[in-house]
Amino acid sequence: MTQQTEAAAGLTVDELAARAGVTVRTVRFYSTRGLLPPPVIGPRRVGRYGPEHLSRLALIEELQHQGLTLAAIERYVQQLPSGLSAEDHALHRALVATWVPDAAAEVSRAELERRAGRSLTDDDVARLAAMGVLERTPGGGGAYGARTGDGSAAGDRGDGDAFRVDPAVLHLGVRLLDVPIRLDTILAARDVVQEHSRAVARELTRLFRDEVWEPFGEAGPDPEQVETMKSLSAHMQPMVVQALVTAFQRSMKAELRESFPAE
Fold it and tell me: What SS3 class is residue 259?
């Protein structure tokens, strides 16, 4: 059975907990509170979980990082449309995670593979790094770390590897490993996103400075109003991100329809 077939067959509760980095008890607790969709009951009455459960757990974790109580998380989850895919959950999580501190965890190579649910080659690690899913921490060995005297990687496949990984998007990146996309293509896509997102940020900052901040400053310094303007700029950021996400979704759908018209 291939890794793709295994993924399609679903995860047991133990495998789900291992991939999400939580305990089985936590998974069962969330299930009893209605925070997780029910599993698909397979042969021998064994519940099977899929990518949408992993993404839901990641969303719950982000909401906890933001300081929401369990009751507030329950209200948030209840408002979500039914039948959300793993990608839909990941989008909700990305919007929440934008405004919280970096929650990346440092893990060993063994823990990384346990959470990924599969063994990872050095090429897999490089592709995940290019996607922004993980990065090797200073001092980590492996193909992209220190080298020994004979030129071999100091920590290849060994316990010396250490990574900072975003657990919430790891499973999404792992799913892309089976898609035939070259590493240089992933890097080129990342450059496109970074280049244009920086350009958008630059232009929006210029508009705010020229149309809001500078006219306000001409009225003379007022410490209280300065703090008000700073607060306003901070509150604008979530609205701008939401607008960017919505615009990108619509643009992407339009481009896909034009590039791959339905027959």
Answer: helix
